[in-house]
Queue: 3 jobs
Job 1
Amino acid sequence: MSADAPYPLAQDLRPVALVIVAGSIAAVKAPSALRRLREAGFQTRVIATAAALNFTTPLSLSTAADAPLHTDQTWFGPQPGAEHLLLAHADMVVCVGAGADLLSRAALGRASDLASATLLSVRCPVLWVPAMNERMWLHPAVQTNVALLRSWKHHFLGPEYGPFGSHGEGEGLGRMAEPETIAALAWGLLTPAPQDSHDLQGRRVVVSAGPTREYLDPVRFISNPSSGKMGFAVAEAARDRGARVTLISGPVNLPDPPGMEVRHIESALELRDAVMEAAGRAHLVVMTAAVADYRAAERAGEKQPKVAEEATLRLVPNPDILAELGGQKGERVLVGFAMETHAGVERAAAKARRKNADFILLNYPTQENTAFGGDDNQVTLVRPGGASEAWPRMSKLEVAHRLLTEAAKLLPPE
Ligand code: CTP
């Protein structure tokens, strides 16, 4: 921290998290986020926008932080106009409950209030934790601002799917991430990870994600609970490392990530067509999709009524997309995922050989909060020869980056 920093805490070596609390209903969670950030190891500073103070109080913010609250009123205090520069000496900025307006002020480079002027002045990582109505979040104006901020290497956490805070609109995408998750990610971002490199610059990466749906009739289908989170994490990590990404996704409850081509499919046959088309010029294909192995031999054109006590369903196998890619591999790097309940490494190695994949990440459906639906994953990298490496439990984004680091080693030089 430099000599002109507002808090020259020579004796306090903890990194500084500057929390900007914006004006959304989620601002009520800001004091809790401040406490979690402190528990994670940060010393905290806090700015509240004028709108934020409609939802939370100065006292609850300043008591949760390690310093007095900064607002537009304090901006023109004893050192008029300099507060944003002094506060900018932080190690991490976390924008909590960020709504469309703060995102747009930041994307436009406004300096019309303390929060936006400080965002213009910082040189440290910025983590946005948005919260707003789903319709606002998905509006192209907001998504364009998010894409611009991402291109400046700003980080985003959420919004998540869940109940909306206001007007009984039910569930949707727009809920703010939980304070524990915010603190964990902010701490993780302090350590520069390999993802800050651009080792996939100019490479074309195809990622499949989510489940497939095999329709029996117009309203019934066979599927599985894949959330798509692992594949989306791989696609976002590849994009952040400079790749041109095509994400091919089955039906999931996740927004299309900006900065890549996203194609939506339902059945395994549609997935096969989309993957084979996109893979034509790809350097790397990562198959995280949970593809249904079978589909109905006949798909009824109309909803089938109940006719008897017992019914028999005739299934036919779906094409194995990874194996098909493996059959025409060339220099393309192929990565698969496998879920096994027993003899995992041997079975995954045999699968990698059979499908001609460079490696497979193996996970177990029985592990708590991993694989289907969870935010973490615990995987073992298995190579066709049987060599394996168990990775510790980590977030799906970290698994994605580690996967890409391994895959990048196998790419032929450009
Ligand atoms: N996969 C694929 N096409 C399929 C089935 C699976 O491309 N029809 C891919 C998956 O995306 C994953 C890998 O193959 O990357 C392993 O999938 P898994 O279903 O575990 O393998 P299977 O070959 O179906 O083996 P099992 O007999 O264990 O189900």
Job 2
Amino acid sequence: MGRIPEETVAQVLDATDIVDLIGSYFPLKRAGTNFVCNCPFHQEKTASFNINPAGQYYHCFGCKESGNAIGFLINYENLPFIDAVKKLADRANIPIIEDVYDPEADKRRRRISRLKEINNEAARYFHKLLLKSPDAQHARDYLKSRGFSKETAEKWLIGWAPKNSSIFLNHLKAKGFNGGEFKNAGLGNLRDKDNPRAGLYSKFYDQLSFPIKNDYGDVVGFSCRILRADDKRGKYINTADSPLFNKSNLLFGLDQARKAIGREKFALICEGQVDTIVLHEAGFENTVSGLGTAFTEQHARMLKRYTNHVTLCYDADSAGLKAADKAFDHLTAIGLPVKLVHLPAGHDPDTYLQEFGPDQFKELLENARDFFDAKLDSLLPQTNLSSASERAELLSDLSKSVAQMSDALLQDATIQIIATRLRIGTDEFRQLVVTQKNKPTYDRRGNDHVEIKTQPTILDKTISYLCHLSLKSNEAAEYLCEQLDSLYEPLQETPGGNLLQTILARRPDTSSSGTVQAFLLTLPEPDQLALRQDFNIEIPENPVASATEAVTLLLATHLQKKEAALRAQLADPNLPPDQMILIVEEIKHMQEFLKNLDSRFIR
Ligand code: ZN
């Protein structure tokens, strides 16, 4: 890897505001012309960590740590110098040209930045249609019915994906984007996977679009909501996972909520995009939500960078309570205390605000209770404690969640609260919690908490091998990056394909084991565990040749699976003849493709 020229380092520092940078990790307080917080480098109760905006440096009066923005990243994120500069450059959108020109790295950077551009362009285009297109009247009506103003739509860049998606495709084409970029951005796919000439389709049509932004405010994907009651698709459809977009590490609204989370000293988590926007508009700007799927461990870790307190505000129904349980498990496992807002039955934040207004909601928030207190409030009225089985079920359910808590003091206090409310002995309940903690994970199969005890991500054997090759050989990684387009579909459908894509998108420099280790630490825990399993594989003498073999094997296996699926369709006696012809053609096409692959890998 090359050296970063000094001018570039200076340019990066110029474009970085150290207050903004450190403020994105911890809530800061103004103190005269400086900002202060508790020192991240030593344990303390009073804030002696000072950030000086004029001089762009930090200094701790307690432990004497000091430095500039780069020094902060080196010390706090444990990054090598070069990576710290790169991270800041990325944040400030400054291209880094290293002294040694690396065409592959350059290509990759350009590819990622094109994906951002196409997403941003799509967001602007959908937004313009929503505001202006005569065909979007029903979308505007819907927003009005939810009480969204034009200003709200503008602030969140809400849009409308046109019913006729070829208008959208033509627009992107006119703006200079190609089909590969469209596909790789997760916006759509080929109409016919084996025949690029048949054209593309868009995942999004006749839907309200909510752009999803990353930490830096770039649009990286969409969550789109259906508008018509007879629309048979899911209520929300998200961008497919791409090198930019991964549901489990994006929180909707975080870019707008970050400052308020620091100010309010807690994050409010709700269930969906519409609730998030409604809450922001009502003045609760510290609100974020996951993207339709459950709240993940990564989400919890992201929030912990900004706050030490979390309040959950989920729908007041059994699905909402279940979702809150999962979020609680992840948050408490990393030591964050959790409160739960108790909405009246049948309400979600939106309906509650409409009926009772923001002042009442504020009162609810202020009265939000400790998670278990609130949970018992909703569970106890429906539980018959004199029934031995109902009682046992409740105790087992509660003890499982308490067992997830990583903060021992908090856990002990919680055990006392629950024991008191259920009128059982503290020791008896503590024993139940200990039993849950010691239970081997295989005993837990079949209950909701299975994925909580972190399980490694499941990796296909070939994928696992390719992941390790990419982490141990720059040449192999380079080669694999070139293959990404043709591997797109197999990677989508093979376990662990996403992890390989992540590694290739970020490609840590394999010549520095520190860089690789630092990169591994940024991955979600299940991925780290999976990669740690076979970390001792040896680098083959010719990594590119080994990568080529593995890629061929991956492609061959994928095609064979597809072919088998098509043959199964052929076996259906009710198959219409015209479809049969199509399938036979497709099988022929696939066999030809297979023939061209290395024959060693075909069964
Ligand atoms: Zn200190």
Job 3
Amino acid sequence: MSVVKFKYEDDICLIEVNNPPVNAISLEVRKDLLNAVIDLENDKKIKAVVICAPNRTFLAGADIREFGKNIDGPILSDICNRLEKLDKIVIASLHGTPLGGGLEVAMSCHYRVATPDTKVGLPEVLLGIIPGAGGTQRLPRLAGISISLEMMLTGRHVPASEAIENGIIDEIIDDKDTVLNGIKVAKKLIANKSKPVATYLRNEKFINSEETKISIKKIKDKFKSKHKNLFSPQAILQSVEEGLKLTFEQAIKNERKLFSDCIKSPQREGLIHSFFSERAVNKIPELKNGKSKSINKIGVIGGGTMGTGISMAALNSGFSVVMIEQDEQSINKAQEKINSTYERSVSLGRISANDKQRILSNFKGLTDLNSLSDRDLIIEAVFEEMDVKKEVFKKLNTICKNETVLASNTSYLNVNEIADVVTNPERVIGLHFFSPANIMKLLEIVVAEKTSNDTVATAFSLAKSMKKIPVRSGVCDGFIGNRILSKYLVATYHMVEDGASIFDIDRVIRDFGCAMGPFQVIDLAGGDIGWATRKRKAHSRHKDDRYVEIPDRVCEKGWFGQKTGKGYYLYGKDVPFLTPNPEIDQICNEERKRAGINQKEFNDQEIIDKYISSLVLEGVKILEEKISLRPSDIDVVYINGYGFPRWRGGPMNYADSMGLDKVLNNIKNYEKEDSRFWKCPDLLTKLVSENKSFKDLN
Ligand code: 3HC
Ligand code: NAI
């Protein structure tokens, strides 16, 4: 069946694209569109053309799955150029999300009409590429340089109301029927004898002047630090800047070349891997027959860091929330934190005072656990102690309705054990939010042994309502994210004891693209948390495990990081960011001496190799144990929860790009030094022997 259909109404030709789910502009669509344009070039009767896609959305962009493959056939850029030169008025009737190539098609039409809820954008930068079908040249002609650059450098989706103000669209019609909208406009334009005006001829907002140079400089400065390490934002700027000095035709050729350079870049591969991985997380066995329960009323137990964040995340998504604390003083403190967070949002203009009032009208802070009897879902966020959690779940077992879903936000504890204190454990699940829970997108959904498919489906649907990215995890100490974190922290402690500087390690990992180095992360989260975990696990540590005491020495001094003003770095009003704590090196030296270590020097590559190898090593074990269903889920966890550079596609994808044979080789070498820590997983050896990569397991 053809993906592009034609209909004729008097002297109007209607081109309807139908390529579900999002009308991506695949090779088939391009072939059909090109044929349509060729027909129209030779047609003398048709006076107006309407392009629309009446199902879910107008064209949401090029078909990303085709990138990096050798595909012969018409190029969208050429189709847009020919479309623009037609001698009849071409109207794009927009709805949904005309993005990337979709907006580029629309911009090469002569008129754009949209439904009020349409959002347009050129999000190519998020995929490591630049708009490659005239977008870098036509958008500035319609909207001006500053707005266009801001849109292309952020990938932001712009609502119709803003797009019309900026000249990107011409009209909004409050009717969902895009076919009728297009025809209505076509008839109006024919009646007015309107002539087609090609966007490439509209140069009034695209002028090579001093003023333009100043605007471009301002934008470059604004995005400099955000786009450090990234290739495609530079290419976008280059295409626009150079376009100012070229004819349109030359500028399009230049854009095409820059587009091709981006397509070849590993960053494009990493970013597109991230895009598809974030969509793959929802493909899990439990959702095949699990049925989501309806959730309206949520209970949160504990009003500390996580309880307050989770409550706000739920309130922001329109849920009714009752939060329970141990006593009046604690609940008042928690309420004050929530109130002040919303107050800050009001003062920053993010929400109105009315919004704040509306949101908080759904919130109650109480101290009696019995008040949770009417809740549909409860999220426990009390202290990280098994006995405390079990006590809470035992009480919930008697207080709540039988069908209430009971979730724990534990970071490390065994959810099976928690579930066992409840008479119907199939309704117990782990919902591991990340701090700050009202901001961070990641949600690990921990499926315990007895968790029912319906409970899993409910958790995934909750994540969707809260606009979180859910990743399924099995039960183990730390689940996917924190288990891997524990591993690579130990690997970095080993490196420090062997002679590497803490501050070099952080720098190298930042330079690699991570948001923070591991010691910065410890200072942010509080060194005491890891210290408590190390003490908790001390009895189960094998006598032959290498244990580095440096972090314990730091904690013994009361240096827990930001909250105590001192950790691996110093903190304070007048202290510059990343000022090393001058006493740390001495602690390291003393510990190296005490442990009888022969110090060695580490170069940057050695640091990064060991860091990545430890991450991947634990990732592979997690796959072997089926804690994670696929390597790409680990990538999603690391990108969205641990600041791993998105453009590297996550640690498992990065390992693929290095070559698994190289990763295996590194691990085998480390294994010679410490066979317990670096014991090589069979799965990795098997993949290398079969010449496979993690991608083959996705
Ligand atoms: N190509 C191929 N598949 C795509 C796609 C695309 N451009 N956009 C979405 N899909 C697929 C998704 O992978 C998903 O598939 P699945 O059901 O098998 O998992 C399905 O369409 C639905 O996508 P979402 O789950 O993301 O649906 P939402 O309704 O939440 O969001 C959307 C829809 C806003 C369109 C979102 O999918 C999106 O942002 N897509 C990417 C848009 C984009 O980046 N366009 C530019 C492409 S690059 C380009 O056009 C180059 C040009 O300049 C030449
Ligand atoms: P926190 O110490 O800030 O807050 C815990 C709160 O629970 C305290 O306010 C305490 O008064 C309250 N509480 C204790 N027992 C209670 C009870 N029986 N009834 C009602 N309230 C009770 O701790 P935080 O950081 O919020 O952690 C909570 C849980 O979330 C822990 O399991 C932790 O491992 C987990 N977690 C923490 C993250 C973090 O970054 N802090 C991230 C993800 C999970």
